[in-house]
Amino acid sequence: MKKNVPRKQHYHSSVSRRDFMKMIGLGGLATLSGRLLESPFKDLDEMMTSPAATRNLPFWVKEVDEPTVQIDWEKMEIFPGFMGTLFNPQSWPEGEWAKIQASNIQSTIENVKNKAPGYTLRDHALGDAQCWGWAITDVATNWTGPDVQPVPVWEHPTMFYTPADFGVPRYEGSPEENSRMLRVAGRILGAADMGFVKLNEKTKKLLYGNVVFEDVEQGYENKDKGLSVLPNKDLWVICAVIPQALNTFPDRMSWANSNTAAYSRASIYSNRMNVFLRGLGYQHYGSGTGSVGRAVGFGVMSGMAEYGRPGIMVSPQFGTNFRTVLLNVTDLPLAETKPIDAGITNFCRTCKKCSELCPSGAISTADEPAWATWPDGAQPWQAKGLKGWYLEAKKCYAYMLGGEPDCSRCQAVCPFSKFDQAVMHDLVRASIKSTPVLNGIIRKMDDVFGYGAQTGIDLWNTNPDDIPLFGLDTSRS
Amino acid sequence: MHTISWTWFWYLLAGFLLGGSLVYVWQTFQKMSIKFIWYEWVLTILGILIFVFMFQTFIASLEEGQTRAAWMSLIFFGIPVILIVVGVTRSIQARLVKSK
Prior knowledge:
- The complex is a heterodimer.
- Chain A has one domain.
- In chain A, strand 3 and strand 4 form a beta hairpin.
- Chain A is α+β, with helices and mostly antiparallel strands.
- The two termini of chain A are 33 Å apart.
- Chain B has a domain of 65 residues.
- In chain B, helix 1 runs antiparallel to helix 2 and helix 2 packs antiparallel against helix 3.
- The longest helix of chain B has 33 residues.
- The termini of chain B are far apart.
- Chains A and B meet through loops of A and helix 2 and helix 3 of B.
C-alpha cells in the first residue's frame, strides 16, 4: 500500500487561454486582438489596483465613478425597512389588504381547480416546495417531513395549501407518470438523478432498525422509543442522487466545499421533496441523510449506482462524485427502477486504485469480493448479507476523523470520477462494460494520464467567475 | 457573470484547418492524378478520426484542468496519426516511383 503518495499540484485551467494561443502560434493574433479592444487601463499597475483585477467585467462594460441613475445624496432619506413597504398589511387602508388577500385566495383556488397552465396542483406544490427555507419554516428535520402550514398574513396566502385546502382531490397519475413528475421536480429541487424502490420483504431490510411498521393510516415518530413508524401499506422509497462539486473535491477541500455543501443541499432537497409530496396530497417520510436507511443499499437497488470496492456507490454518470443517495418514503405510486450493470463492480476487481492510495489502509486489496466472515456478535459497524469488499471501518474513521481530517481520497482517485468534457471518458466507460479484458490497461492509463493526482484547485486564487454558482460544477450533474 | 468560454473557437478553428487541409490535399492529388487504394482510404479516414479525437481530448482536458492528461493525449493519439500519415505518404510515393 502506498502511503501519503506525493501528489503534484495542478490547478484548474493551469494553461491560460493566452498561453494556449501562443502555444499554437496565435500569440500575435491575441496581442493584436487585445490592442484592438479599448483598454480602460494605462498600465499594469493601474489595472491591478482596480477592483476589476478581481472582478472580470466583459470588455463592453466600463467602471464609472457615478451610477447611471442620478442620486442626490442631500435629499436621500433612510428608508424605514420592511414595515414601510406594502408587504406590511398595516401599510394598507383598513380592509383593503384583506380584500386583496381574499381575492388572491379565490383566484388561486379557481386556477388550481381549473388546472390553469402554470397553476395546477402540482405546479403549486412545486412552488411551495421551493418556499421551504424561505418562508416561515422550521429548519429542524422531522420523520414526517416539515410541519409547514399556510401563513394567512403573508402576500402568498395559499402557500403550503394541501389539496384539501383547495377543495380538490389529490393528484392522480399512473406510476410511470408519477415517476416522470418526480424526476422533473427532483431536478429543480436538487436531485441529479432519481430511482424508485418499492418496499417489500427484501428491501425493508435496507431500512434502519428504528424504522418499524404499524397498522396505522399515517406514520409518525415515537421520540420516546426512538422509533420512526411507517404505515402498513404500499410504500416506495424515492432515491435521489445528490451531486457534489468535483473541482473543489479532492482531499481536505472536500470539507470546505464539496462534502458539506452536498449534505446541506441533500437536507434542503429532502425537505422540499416532502413539501412537494404534501402539496400533491401524499404521505412523505424521512429527512436528512441519516433517517431512512442504507444509502448504498437503496442506491444500488434503485439502479443509481453499482457497489464499489470501498463500500461506496459508483455511478456510471457521476462516478463517486456524489455525496449520497437521499431517501424519502412515500405512498405515491411509482414505477420501480431496476439495478444496473455498467461493469463497475467488475472493474473494481482489477482497478484497486482506491485501496492502493487509501492512506489508512482501510480498503480491501483482495481480488474477489467475499461474504462477511466476522463472528456473530462482533461489531464491524457494517451489515452482513453482501458479497463485497468490506471496509475496515475503524481504520478509515480513525484516520478520517483523527489523522487527516475529511479525507475523501477514495472518491477523488476513482477512475469513474471525471469531468464530462472529454469524449474519451465515455468511450472508456463503454469499454469497461463491453470489453472488461482491457480493464487492467484502462487502470494503468488512468495513472499515466495523471487522473486522481490533483490536490484540488487553488481556491482562494481562483478567478471568482470560474467558480460555479454554489461551487457545484455542471459536470455530470 | 461568466467569462466567455472560447472552447467553441478552438473546435471551429480545428474544423477550418482540417477541412482546408483536406481540400488542399484532395486538389493536389487531383492535379497529380493520384488515386487512393482502398487501404489508403481506410487508413486516412482512421487517421482523421484519431486526429479529431486527439484534438477534442486535448482541448477538453485543458478545460477540465487535467493538464497532464491533455499532453498525454497528444502523445498517445498523435503518434498513431503521424504513423498513418507517414505510412500513407510512403505508400503513395512508392506507387508513384514504381509507375515512373
